[in-house]
Write a structure and sequence with these properties.
Layout (H helix, E strand, L loop, with lengths): L1 H15 L26 E7 L8 E5 L9 E10 L5 E5 L2 E5 L2 E9 L3 E8 L9 H4 L2 E8 L1 H4 L8 H7 L8 E2 L6
Length: 179
């Protein structure tokens, strides 16, 4: 046992010793040039649209900027304007329960465009009041996938605009959608 203790003590003393630091080694070869990296931030735009029989009660809007396949568009629409002028934004899909049935504003997307359309149990969308069909304002915020990876992001309109520091002036106004 004494022999084992002596070996253990000697190894601790040997490992704890240090000498002067040696010279810095030679510079390594330069790496292959690549694109500048960094996080992409959310991009946003606004579009006003009419839902008519001519456009099948829906429209397709191109982003106007590069979107990667893993990025996710979040779409909001003005649902109401309060007496003091405050706009109430709701995320899509959004449903309204009407006497004609259930009206749902829904969407789908690709990496080049977003399609916003009316859906639901309403037999004829043309019978709906113009308040539901004409001059609807939508805001699209395309969020890079790395921001959604943690799964703890507040996806309300207020939460998203605050998280990405998006101001009213940052929403690029697209021409009125008619297609």
């Amino acid at each position: 046992m004494k022999k084992l203790f002596s070996i253990f003590a000697a190894s601790i003393i040997f490992l704890s010793c240090s000498g002067p630091q040696g010279p810095i080694g030679p510079q390594g070869p330069e790496g292959i040039p690549g694109l500048d990296g960094g996080l992409e931030y959310a991009k946003a735009f606004e579009v006003v649209a009419d839902f008519t029989q001519a456009n099948g009660y829906g429209f397709v809007e191109e982003y106007g900027f590069d979107v990667f396949p893993a990025d996710v568009p979040l779409i909001y629409m003005i649902w109401d304007v309060l007496e003091n002028g405050t706009e109430v934004w709701r995320p899509l899909p959004q449903s309204a329960y009407l006497s004609q049935g259930i009206l749902t504003y829904n969407f789908d997307f690709t990496d080049t465009d977003v399609s916003i359309f009316m859906d639901g149990t309403v037999n004829d969308f043309g019978t709906l009041s113009e308040a539901y069909r004409i001059g609807q304002t939508f805001r699209v915020v395309v969020v890079p996938a790395e921001f959604l990876a943690g799964g703890r992001m507040d996806l309300t309109y207020e939460g998203v605009t605050k998280a990405f520091n998006i101001k009213e002036s940052d929403f690029k106004k697209h021409p009125k959608a008619t297609k």
